[in-house]
Structures are given as structure tokens and as C-alpha cells.
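During the reporting period the student researcher (J.K.) took over the structure-prediction task from the postdoctoral fellow and processed the backlog of single-chain submissions. One of the processed entries is reproduced below for the supervisory committee.
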Amino acid sequence: MALPIHRRMGPAEWAILLLLASVWGGSFLFISLALHSFPPLTLVLIRCSLASLALLALLRLTGTRLPRSAAAWAAFARLGILNVALPFGLVAWGQQHIATGLASVLNATTPLWGVIVCHLFTRDEKATRGKVIGVVLGMAGVAAMIGGDAFIGLDSNLPAQIACVAAALSYAFAGLYSRGFAERGIAPIQVAAGQLISAALLLLPIALIAETPWLLSPPHPESLMAIAALGVVSTAFAYILFFRLVETAGATNALLVTLLVPISAILLGTLVLGESLAPRHLAGIGLIALGLAAIDGRLFSRLFSLWRVEPAAPPG
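J.K. obtained the following C-alpha cells:
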């Protein structure tokens, strides 16, 4: 039975969102280490394959089976294209031609596209003023955290920029499309496994033809550890959290994780790699926090209620 979708997230949904942001924030570190030994498409293929194996093992341990119907696997294939193969490929191509900072800002438009897509195609996730203001504030926070480098190349390489925006739009449609699995009684772990298996099968011939991975040099040990963590933690575990959040909080709320991932990545870089935390990072975190508060609405509602002046009682 599908769980009700909460327009306003409760403590459990916020906890899942923050945990998911932490897990996906760590993927930047893992990817940078894995790329020392693996080209992009091969990296994505191995990532999806390891995640699929981890989820299949977990399904076996829990006694859960994947759906066998052709309709379910067709849905998994569509989701694997929208949520994995297409956006991963578009971003990988785009980042070859534009700065990483600009790509990150364009990726942070995902929740804005999510608000628009869900407003147009759903009845229970309509756009509100708070959502739109919150997403814009969050995007401004991401841009502030990255700094001036975020806009390097903004006046050139239009196809690469369009590719990154198209990836964000693809994620938004994937969030919308994934809502339907709960109605069919398909659990988040089954959705995660099905889409990753489908994406791996789709990427296999493409990576083999484009990158001939059997000709690569032996990988470095740190790259092997990084890609293992990327597949098991930042993909398998992360997608279980993501689809659980879509199931209970809705697609637009789940896509807010895109705004929190840069915070997690920067904090992990500070704690693990000894990178410095600049004032712009703190300013960006503040803007993102304001944006999330505007989307949630409760804090501002309480402030407005405190400022509201009650009319004086009539004399006598």
C-alpha cells in the first residue's frame, strides 16, 4: 500500500534528506579518486554494476524478489534512462567543455525543474510561492558557495550548458516518474535495483565500444576502494533513501537534495582533505538554509504570527 505524500516534510523526511545529501556529497570525493584509473563511461558502468550486485545481495538476504512482469521491467528501464544513463552521460560530456562550478550551478536547477514538472503533471504537488522562493534562494546559495568560478564559460559552450540543464530536467522527470512505483506496490529497494540493473545493461555496450576498458592500465588501490564506496554507499544505499523519500515526501521535496549536496561535499572536503572553509561557503550555506525554511514554511509562519498585531478588545 502506498504511503501518503506529505506536502510538508516531518522530522523523519528531513533526516532522510540530510543523510542522503551526506552520502551523495561524498560521491564527489570518490569520483575524483576513481577517475585516476577509470574513464567516465567505464566508471559509471562499474558504479551501476557494483550497486546492482549490492542491492541483489540485500534483496536475497531480506527474502525480497524483484518483479518479473514485462511491464515492471519496462518501467525500470525508462527510469534507468531518465535517472542514471541519460543525466550521467550528459553531465560527463558537458563537464568536458565547461567549468565544474558552472556545471554544479546548472545541476542545482534540478529542484526548480522538479517544482515546474510536478506542478504541470500532478494534482498533489502544485507549486507554491514558498517553494519557488526557496528553490531560487537555494540556487543562489549554491552559486555563492562556488564563487566566481561558477560563471566561467557562461558566454560560451552553449551546447554543453544545455546538456547540463537537460540532465537536471531529466532528473526532475525521473522524480515524477518514480512516484508511480509505490502505487504498484514496488518497494524503494526494488525500484533502486531495477533501475540500476537496467542502466548497467544499457551502458555496457556503449562503454565497451567507446572506451575499450580491457586496454586500461591496472587501477590504483585508492581508485578501487573509491569506486567500491561509490557503488555500494553513494549509489545502492543512496537510491534506497531517495526512492523512500519520493514515496513519503513527494518528488519535489526529494529533489531538494541537489541543493544540500554541495554543502556536504564542501564540509567533507574540509574535514577529510583539509580544505579551507571560506566566508562565501558560510554565506552559501545560509542562503540554502533560508531557502529550505521558505519551502518548509513553518518557521516563517511562526514569525509572521508573532509579528501579527491582534486588534484591541473594545472597551466595556
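The committee noted the following: Residues 1-5 have pLDDT under 50 and may be disordered.
J.K. will present the remaining backlog at the next meeting.
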